[in-house]
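Give me structure tokens for this 337-residue protein.
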Amino acid sequence: MSRPVSRVLTLLELLQAGGVRTVAELADRLGVGERTVRRYVDHLVDLDVPVESVRGRYGGYRLAPGHRMPPLMLTDDEALAVLLGLVAGRRTGITAAAGTAGETAAAKVRRVLPERLRHRLDAVLDSLTFTTAPAESAAPEAAVLLPVADAVRHHRPVAFRYTGGRGGGGERTVYPYGLVAHAGRWYMTGRDLSAGAERTFRLDRVRGARVLPGTFEPPPGPGPAERVLTALATAPYRHAVTVRVQGTAEEIRTRLPASVAIVAAEAGGGAPAGADRAGAEVWCRVEMRAERLDWVPGVLASLDRPFVVERPDELRGLVADLAGRLLDAARQAPPGD
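Here you go.
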């Protein structure tokens, strides 16, 4: 590559770092005179790269948004970060791109890389394996995500059509508090004006989102992430489970995250009647919602802490059944003994 072309590309890379660069700074970085810098800028403009001239004492040049993305100058580390980010986002379900947009974006990045770098990055991607299965992705449409994000940022109401989990739906008008990505899904939390209550909506079930006039003031209290996790933990499933567990709320939450259970320390220790009060151990109330109860005894056993089931009565029998099976398994002699 000839030196002038190389310097023009270096100039583009400097401008892509952001901010205003003075002519003197650019001349020093490129090792040329200020007049040559201006000529290089003219070359970029001829290539439809949107370079702006900023006047004034602290003026110079900066890269402005254009009608298309200018050529990207990526270092080895930056190219690897982009490609790994696309791969990881696709596997975790957090990539907000429907269909094959993530794959086509990665292909475009790879296509413009130098052959040497492309082969090295391919070696990384071909060698990489994951310890978890790909998450079930439910990416929202860009036509939904972008107006909802705009409404959140500027505290404006948003209207949309929503389809619920059981197929029902209709028009909603919401004051959106925030966007939350959780377990491969995107959620919006806010106040549903139609219902007069706070609600959580899955963005992949939203259609026809449009920002409405007016503004609102977000309420104080928990942030969007905590609101979404609480909504997931208290969803109206078939069974309402309440258990007292010995231990601090922080200890219990390591096994029962906020999306699974509501954990609250009991005033005065909260030890249930008949429980061992030695050492004034702290007890917490744990509330969960479950469509089926068969997985709950195993989760309670994994806590490895004393607990008392308050409701439902059916859960006590399932816990006793699990305890019996574990005891029988512990008494079994290994084969051949």
